[in-house]
Amino acid sequence: MSASTAPEGRDPSPAVSRAMGVLRALEAAGAPLTLSEIARGLGIAKSSASNICHALEAEGMIQRAESGYRLGLRTAELGGAFAAQFNQVREFYAVVEADPLLRGQVVQVAMLDVPDAIYLARHEGRRERLGTPLGSRLPLVHCAVGNAMLLAMGDAEVEEVLGASTFTPSTELSVRTPQQVREKICAARERGYAIDRGESFAGVHGVAAPLDPWQPGDPRMAVGVALSAAEADEGTVAGIGEALVGIAAQLTNPLSRRPS
After folding, report:
1. Which of 45, 178, 194, 236 could form a disulfide with 188 if both were Cys (CB 3.0 to 4.6 A apart)?
2. Is residue 115 within 8 Å of 161, Cβ to Cβ?
3. In which element (H, E) is residue 182 found?
4. 132-151 pLDDT, tens per residue?
């Protein structure tokens, strides 16, 4: 029976679904899992879990660790290949390195996956461990890159995002209501860039600007900088915000730019 004719509710490819379940479990764990833990988490026999893990290991998707299995190098390669599909990401590193202010900052690119922002690329311009690891998610309503993507949306699209958001606070400073987000977006639209004053991580501020899609069908993206609260004075934030707006313009498809 083909997938298109499979009865409703039946998994048309259970082996693939179980393999994805193994990968999701290892991603969520953030540490190696034993075969027994994997089997128990998926609700399948240990022998079935062993067969799936053997196939995934052969493809480099997972690898053996002393205490079980962990994600393999192939997952990192696929993540990099995904990000490299987008012109903004490919051009990002050279554009940031050429900017005298931003080259010394932690600068990141994130994309939209409602209700979150997913981090795709990262320029390490300083030794301090600021910012968000690649592949991580943060709520759009809290983080600067998420707010930057929201400021570029129409009101109807913003309301869809607000409806899909849970508003679970990440810090004491996190917004908790849709109206607070609307007010932040309004202020961000006037500036041209968004600011996160410690809403995602205590003691870390963010500044971000939206990136125009390079071509139709590309996801919404934004580029942002992470700063410690101690250095995020109004002048520094404004300077970085203006610099981000500048590189965002450079990361726009030249064929889509309107003549001035």
Report:
1. 194
2. yes
3. helix 178-191
4. 888 889 999 999 999 999 99
